[in-house]
Amino acid sequence: LTLVVYVDNLTFIRQVKYLSQLGGRDLPNVVRKILKKIFSHELSEKINFTGRNGKLSYESMKIRQVIKGK
Question: Which terminus of the chain faces fewer neighbouring Cβ atoms within 10 Å, N or C?
């Protein structure tokens, strides 16, 4: 699955709706499932929240807004 980062409001709404259907037993479980669906293992090793140590910053990614649903 490759998600295109939303370019308009309709795409954003569709992505949020799709990811919200993944479900899980609690919030941490849901977030893990969503991140696994979006990022490959190889890419996830190159990301951290702030972008320290030469990694990509999850904090500044537009996909973060999709995951939060805001």
Answer: N
